[in-house]
Every structure is written in structure tokens, then in C-alpha cells.
Amino acid sequence: MEKMIYAILSVMNNPEKLNVLLSEMKSLSDVDLYPVSCGEIVAVVSDIKRADLIADRSNAIEYAGVIETLAQKFTLLPVRFGSVMESTDAIIKMLERNFNEIQRNLQKVENNFEFGLKIFCESEKLLAELKAKSEAGAETPTRPAPEKTNSVYREYVNVKLKEHRLEELMLAYVDSVIAEITGCLAHLNAISKFKKMATPTNVIDAIFLLEKDKKDELIQAVERLQNQYPVLSFVLTGPWPPYNFVDFAVK
Q1: Distance CA 251, CA 249 (A)
Q2: Is residue 159 domain-shared with residue 230, that is, in the same domain?
Q3: How confident is the model at residue 71 (pLDDT cuts 50, 70, 90)?
Q4: 189-196: long-range contacts at Cβ-Cβ below 8 A with a sequence spacing of 24 or more?
Q5: What's the confidence (pLDDT) of residue 192?
Q6: Closest by alpha carbon to 49, among 67, 80, 68, 28?
Q7: 64 plus 153 within the same structural domain
Q8: CA-closest candidate to residue 79, choices 57, 102, 97
Q9: H or E element: which one contains 206?
Q10: Any idea what the CATH number is for the domain that residue 163 is in?
Q11: Residue 142 lies in a domain
């Protein structure tokens, strides 16, 4: 029977702790979970028929729940939902081929959790404020009035130029917020990744890899940032297993 992999983790010198935990857990469809070992590295798997695997929301949530339970007790690398291999032997060979990269990634995420930070805004309101500040701070030298023209092309260019300037204002503002976030979190030694303008309203989508015992400090820092930027809405999520900080491709 085929094997579905949930996570790859380090058991160090305490494999019995994992065995006890797995005996108290169930995988999708209440199938038993069990370890497949390669030295101190273990893949947590369950038996499954690939044809029976249904990639729906319910199964994805249940799958993630298994990983989150494991992450409370062990340093691990989450595996993507639906990762199935043909046999136990195939999994062992995969662990052997990728042993050094797995070890490196486990060391990177050891004693760390992932946190997500989404920053939202009312884009039209924010753009209006940025435009007003920009116009108030700009010099307005006296220039000769331009000759009037009915050129449709000129009107089109002017519209596009205004749109481009507003985009530049927004991006400059977003960059300044990211710089402020980075500065506020510098003392936490977090590994950060930022995505700008994920949507017109989600202006910053950030993830952080942070030591478990610094969670409260992160929450306090985000609260200070929220007070500093009342026009924005800060939504912090986590802690999560380090889904976005596994940086090797399985060979």
C-alpha cells in the first residue's frame, strides 16, 4: 500500500516520545500514523490508496491538524498535502538522498514557529491621504498656463501619468511601513519575508520565523505598529509550523 507523508522531523535520542504521541493520534480516515526512520530523521506517514485521496478542504484541515500536533512536541518540516510515495523503502531512499538538506533545514527551524502578518487598508482612502500629503509638501512654482488642447491622446497620457504617480506613492508608503516593521522586529532576530500589494486592500503580506519564547514580544510589537498606523489594519496569525521556510527541493 502507498504511503502519505505528513512531516519530516528530528527525534534526536528520544524516538519513544514520538511512538507514544503517534499511538494517541490518527491520520485521515482514522488510519494509524507511524514513523519511517533514517537515523535520527523520521518521516511520519500513514497507509493510503492514492485513488482514495480526496483533496478537499476538510481533509486538508485534518492533515494540517496532524502536523500542528506534531509541531508542539518536535522540530519538523511540514510536507505538502497529498505527498504520496509508493512504499516504505522509497521513503527511506528519499530521506537518504536528501539527508544533508533535511538536517540543514531542521537546524534552521529548530525551536521556531512561523507567524503571519497581513496588513489591510481602504485603498481609496489611503491613496487620498497620500495624495493630499504629497501635494501639501510639494513646491508649486509659477508656470505659464499651458495651451488648451482637445487632444484625446494628451488626456489619456495625463490620466495614466496620474495613475502612475499614485502607484509610486503607494509603493513608497508600503516600503516605509516594511522598513518600520523590520526595525521594530530587529531585536527579535526574526527571519522575515514580505510580499507587497498582494491585493489592492492587502498591502503587505508578511511571514516571520521566530523563536517560540518570543511570541509575546511579537504581539506587543504588532500592537505598537497598529497604534502607529491607524489607517492600516494589522492581522497577526500563528504560531504555525514553518510551512514557508523549508527551502530545499526533494531529490
Answers
A1: 6
A2: yes
A3: very high
A4: 190/214, 190/218, 191/245, 193/244, 196/171
A5: 94
A6: 28
A7: no
A8: 102
A9: strand 202-211
A10: 3.30.70.600
A11: no
- The answer to whether residue 251 is domain-embedded is no
Name the pLDDT band for 129 (thresholds 50, 70, 90): confident
Closest CA to 208 of 118, 119, 114, 109: 114
| Same domain membership, residue 178 and residue 68 | no
Is this prediction's pTM over 0.85? Answer: no
Q: Which amino acid is at 149?
A: T
DSSP 77: E
Q: Is 47 a member of any domain? A: yes
State how far the Cα of 126 lies from the Cα of 102, in Å rounded to an integer.
44
Identify the pLDDT of residue 153.
Answer: 59
**Domain range spanning residue 75?**
2-110
Q: For the chain, how many structural domains are there in total?
A: 2
Phi, then psi, of 106 in degrees rounded to 5: -65, -40
Q: What angle, rounded to 10 degrees, do the helices at 99-109 and 88-97 form?
A: 80
